[in-house]
Amino acid sequence: MFEKVLIANRGEIALRINRACHEMGISTVAVHSTADADAMHVRLADESVCIGGATASESYLNIPGIITAAVITNANAIHPGYGFLSESARFASIVEEHGINFIGPTAEHIKLMGDKIASKSKVKELGIPVVPGSDGEITDLTTALKVSEHLGYPVLVKASAGGGGRGMQVVHEKSDLEASISRARAEAKAAFGDDALYLEKFLERPRHIEIQILGDGNNNVIHLGERDCSLQRRHQKVLEEAGCTILDSEERDTIGRKVCQALSKLGYKNAGTIEFLYENGEFYFIEMNTRLQVEHPVTEMVTGLDIVKEQLRIAAGSSLSLSQNEVSYRGHAIECRINAENAADFTPSPGLVKDYHPPGGLGVRVDSGLYAGYRVQPHYDSLVSKLIIHGENRNECVMRLRRALDEYVITGISTTIPLHQEIIAQPEFLAGDYDIHWLAKMVERRTTP
Length: 449
Prior knowledge:
The chain has 449 residues and is an alpha+beta fold. The chain is built from 15 helices and 20 strands. It has an eight-stranded antiparallel sheet, with helices on both faces. A hairpin with a 2-residue loop joins strand 10 (221-233) and strand 11 (236-242). The N and C termini lie far apart (60 Å).
């Protein structure tokens, strides 16, 4: 096992990794920006190294700074968390070239799955169902028109290197296609430096369902069930559940088996998540995330498995600690992503946290780097806390979540706690009857005069 792990991230996920390492007897190194000198992940790590200025490009995306920090502290592994460099094949390669273990998949698999066109083609070849769409990149309007006519409107224009909804346009009519392609191409170029686009059929009322997997690189792959991530705003997940209210155990096992068989053929190593749209009883692959997911705690709550510890063991050369037959599920879990934003209009709300009191009790978990006196920085993602609730069934989970949200005190900044209180009070949510467009419509209803 590793003696020392450098955590190339910040905030709650850096804390999450730090805790797993300490429980395994592994020393930790926190890297941080000048703005994060007083952050909790810095305070709780065994060592810390400042790697640059406040902006992400100066610090958490500063590959030479991170590698230097690992070398001078004699760290023998790096965990990238999520976001930042976690899905950078170049970073993974550089880490390995310096004789340091990268706690994640191989650079080859990160590169393959980071290309939406190539990954869609590969998983289709491996037997995973995909959303009907273009065969590769769309390079001219004539081809785009032909593909769109074949698929039938509405269609979705998507960036090959995209993520988070950037470089994505829904086209409802033929006359809008050219302008939508131009907008998507410009946005993709600005966001990712890559303007390659492809087309997919736009599904009207799908659920966003993902399958968590673990592989040890020796053709052994298991799945840990599904997560329903359909509650989204502007393609950003807001609340996640495990399991999904509309899937039964047979459907879960069938899609899980297909995913495991495909990734076993690929020789996949470490944690990963296959994301699907699900409509009318059919699964359609949309992308694979070759990293730890923000929402991994709901899977941990229903399986009792520590995914980060599994990542560490796999990266250190161990086989999977359990077989598929040993994976079991208990109860229901929900995660609320709490952002430093105004819940009414979603404007960012950085600033000084005056009072901080997280909820507690049976089945309540809070992953957060907040504390009274901490200053939320404007330079990074607005996620400041994850509230994860477990119950013996969904009703108990929702009731416990309601109580926990009422208990949660964060003053000095605005947060999206009121948004979550509003969501879980809606009849559609209580009935489990929602899709990926539902939350946007709820927000639109409350803002329309």
